[in-house]
Amino acid sequence: MVNLGNDWDNILADEFEKEYYKELRRFLVNEYRTRTIYPNMNDIFNALKFTSFENTKAVILGQDPYHGEHQAHGLCFSVLRGIEPPPSLKNIYKELESDVGFIPPMHGELTHWAKQGVLMLNAVLTVRAHQANSHKGCGWEKFTDRVIAELNNKKTPVVFLLWGANARQKARVITNPIHVKLETVHPSPLSAYNGFFGCRHFSKCNEILEKSGQTPIDWQLPE
Fold it and tell me: What whole-number distance in Å separates Cα of residue 21 and Cα of residue 58?
């Protein structure tokens, strides 16, 4: 039984009972038993545990978890302290630096953002070691569509930061005109120079939040 420890439990209760999710769960039980899967089983839903529905005011949507050892811990783009920030995260730091005067820390842990109301969600929540997108199409997309659909119903504006093709596919679920979609390419080294650098999504996000009477995000990460 999944226990998120906040309002997501009631909101998503029926989703966990759907047949596709039960199939996904059976698949995952076997995957974790027979292969190396990231993140740790207890960290799969950390994005929802760290950021309640009520507190969500921005969403950063990633693709699937990092597939290297000790990297993924349930928040998109984030790695635990002591782990070298991956290239995509380094590029996020570069954009933050030029956009809001961010000073890059010596770590890559982004829980500071999650605790302020930034839902750090991947479109797919698990992955096989060293095999990017290996759990794509196994059911997670339906689940994360539901999460986005619920946020679409929020009465307060939410800023959706959609980076890369997988994340931008979720734009179709966001139909409520009070919300704002900021879209660009993925921050990976393969695409960052094609629009991620210079997108200024972090300052734009805060401008939108302030205009709607919400507290802006403190993007600066503590050391």
Answer: 26
